[in-house]
Amino acid sequence: MRINPKQLGYGQLPQRLPIHEDVIQMPLPAPRLYRWLQEVPVYPDQMIVPSMNILKSNWKGTHMTRLCCIAIDEMSIDPRYCYDHNQDRIFGGEKNVTVITVRGLCYAWKQVIYFTFDSSISAVTLRNIIRQLYEVHAEVVSVTSDMGSKNQAMWKELGVGRVIGGVIESTRFKHPNTGNNLGVPDLPHLVKLLRNHTMDNGITIEEGVELNKDFFRDLIMKQNEEFKLTFKLTHKHINCKGKQRQAVGPAFNVFSRPVAEAATFIYPHNETKGKIAAFIQLVSDFCDLTNCRSKVKTSNPYTSPYGTYQAEQDELLERAFTAFSTMVVGQRKRRTYAPFQKGLLMFIISLRGLLNDVKQPPANAKFVIPKNMNQDLLENSFSRLRSFGGFHQNPNAAEVGHRIKKLLLSWNFVTPRGTPVAIEPNENDNSDCITFIHAKSSEKPPCAGI
């Protein structure tokens, strides 16, 4: 399987021009690149050396450039036995690969730093990864994962999310070098789980007010083709099963502003339905704030970065915290939290704590972008890893490392805009005529922009 040169930024470089390895630090033409790629040290259960070298070299900018977030997730792979001739090692029996990525909190950069075929990441391994990142000038401020059983065991080992008397004691754990890190559950996973529990068993918002699939079914039946208020809400949203539940979009469509406004319009004098509509509107505003990906301050406090309208945004988070902590999932007793319910409360506590941390010197940040704290980057990385195989989208354990190498190359070399070469005034001398563009701006670190 060959590498597409356009993914490496070489697609527009003429083959007839002399290429110098001391200029672009990578061999050309393509056959030499394939041989060179086989020797790149990317192995499981250890830090990925090329990523660490990139992070270590020539940081530019302020302390905010160094602040970063770790994301942990796993991808299913082919469990059949295979042989990796580069490592002279036999793999097999592993059904999943756990991948760890790091991305900038305030600046656009990202790297894959670690992968393993073990069942889970231990607290010792995570602390060691954070320590090694600090040694290459990347300061981890948060760690994100979903609320799977393996990750819950890791949080428990770190002392994160312990509930005592219905109160979450702490979402922080000790940083090996600087102080405290924050454990952050992945919000899109939590919203999907909120939808699943609502449709399966129902949730009690407050005494006598229950939200289940019957509410959404009645709301759809009240509308017809000529009178339609919830265009994105269909029976597929409330009856999804199996892999259909993995999609994030339908879960956000269920708890959206149009659904809340439609319920208010259709049931204007029903107090119970009005409370349900208010809860859906609260979840919608909460998702807008925690899914913000822009640095631009808008007129809507809930679609602006967290910290730009701190008073209004803190008031929203306080109302969401109260609603999530008092709702009852299924037949549970009050003040006993379902895993996703505890995750929502942990996310709110961690988000507020993160803003307070980055506002302090030496970062002196004014706001944070909550989107950088979820696992979307990691999910997109899994899609890229699968796409490298064409129709063979389920790699085995030996192929995972090779595909990660290609992902690193496609991330860390940006395709130049305009002409791919810069010709010196003396056009007769082509000895040093090529300038490769590594980044879009000199103010960003020497890593891939997002």
TrEMBL record:
It holds the Pfam family TNP-like_GBD. InterPro entries: TNP-like_GBD, TNP-like_RNaseH_N. Residues 189-298 form the Transposable element P transposase-like GTP-binding insertion domain. Residues 52-159 form the Transposable element P transposase-like RNase H domain. This is Transposable element P transposase. It comes from Orchesella cincta (Springtail).
